[in-house]
Task: inverse folding
């Protein structure tokens, strides 16, 4: 049974073990169904939706967001918020960031959804190594005050070591409002040392959620807002090559330029969309023994995963509307500029118009009096 004051002493966690080298691929059996991995000389799927940090690609946006997130964690100045569209690679980026932190920063990466503060505290204490998961399993009904006191005791023990802790909560836009309020209450106030850094990661809806009146305190504590954008058109080729090289050193497939351009057009640069299209295109390529993935295979993959290409008419309409908007904006800007340049002449003209006397009214015309109608003639009656 857990009791107050059971936090460990002022000790730093042991060094993180290096990731084990992947074992050599098993020789495929004749009974195994052929897959594109074996056909193209890959050890594993290159475009799965896994968040394995080995596949993290350092695009311009990812590098910028990663540096900002590392700086926020190291400085521990307040709450950091990382937002980006679904599938942009936020979770993979966070896993990669955790590996770059030194031993003086203990981490808790919360990837599973949590509904209550008790669940969050248990996850954090287990990740920090304060309480083993076996102890938590044996004592599932620990009082919240005990959990909070244990966390505070552990954080206090880090101060003398000049160390700190960070908790990174993924998909934070799905957290209950009451839980976000309770997270705000965990943050230090006044002159208390900031030992723990809170990082909220989520989709753009998280930004709107934090602006709610009930979360005023948490919103005020946000000191770093980081946005993770999609891959650029010139980064798709590097992204594809990076994932292929990680999945296998003897790759026997390539994507031509037209396929790369099509990938960007269909996915908008979102990594998840690129992965889905590439994974399906490689499956189709293996079925036809294609050594080069071209645009036709990408289009066929898009049809299979119900990701239809935008029509030419739709693209033409969007382009036309955009050009029309630009033209109207330029016309308005030109008109405003012309008025500004000739403002003195315009002012004189307005003054002249205001001083023009009003035209005299036309005198009222005397209308002739109406003639009363004559009475009908009397008709003599014959007796």
Result:
């Amino acid at each position: 049974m857990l009791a107050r004051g059971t936090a460990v002493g002022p000790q730093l966690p042991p060094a993180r073990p290096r990731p084990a080298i992947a074992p050599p691929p098993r020789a495929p059996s004749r009974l195994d169904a052929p897959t594109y991995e074996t056909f193209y000389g890959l050890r594993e799927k290159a475009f799965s939706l896994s968040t394995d940090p080995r596949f993290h690609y350092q695009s311009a946006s990812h590098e910028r967001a990663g540096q900002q997130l590392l700086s926020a964690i190291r400085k521990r100045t307040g709450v950091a918020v990382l937002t980006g569209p679904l599938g942009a690679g936020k979770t993979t980026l966070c896993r990669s960031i955790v590996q770059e932190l030194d031993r003086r920063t203990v981490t808790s990466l919360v990837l599973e959804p949590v509904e209550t503060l008790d669940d969050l505290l248990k996850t954090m204490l287990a990740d920090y190594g304060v309480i083993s998961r076996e102890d938590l399993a044996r004592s599932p009904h620990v009082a919240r005050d005990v959990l909070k006191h244990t966390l505070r005791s552990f954080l206090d023990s880090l101060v003398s070591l000049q160390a700190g802790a960070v908790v990174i909560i993924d998909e934070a836009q799905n957290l209950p409002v009451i839980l976000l309020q309770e997270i705000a209450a965990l943050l230090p106030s006044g002159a208390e040392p900031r030992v723990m850094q809170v990082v909220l990661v989520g989709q753009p809806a998280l930004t709107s959620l934090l602006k709610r009146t009930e979360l005023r305190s948490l919103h005020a504590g946000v000191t770093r807002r980081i946005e993770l954008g999609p891959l650029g058109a010139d980064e798709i080729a590097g992204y594809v090559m990076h994932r292929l090289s990680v999945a296998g050193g003897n790759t026997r497939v390539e994507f031509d330029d037209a396929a790369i351009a099509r990938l960007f057009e269909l996915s908008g640069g979102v990594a998840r969309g690129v992965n889905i299209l590439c994974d399906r295109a490689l499956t189709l390529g293996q079925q036809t023994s294609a050594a080069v993935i071209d645009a036709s295979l990408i289009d066929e993959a898009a049809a299979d995963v119900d990701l239809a290409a935008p029509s030419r008419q739709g693209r033409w309409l969007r382009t036309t509307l955009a050009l029309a908007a630009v033209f109207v904006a330029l016309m308005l800007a030109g008109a405003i500029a012309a008025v500004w340049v000739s403002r003195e002449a315009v002012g004189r003209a307005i003054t002249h118009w205001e001083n023009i006397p009003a035209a005299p009214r036309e005198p009222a015309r005397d209308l002739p009096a109406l003639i009363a109608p004559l009475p009908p003639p009397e008709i003599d009656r014959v007796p």
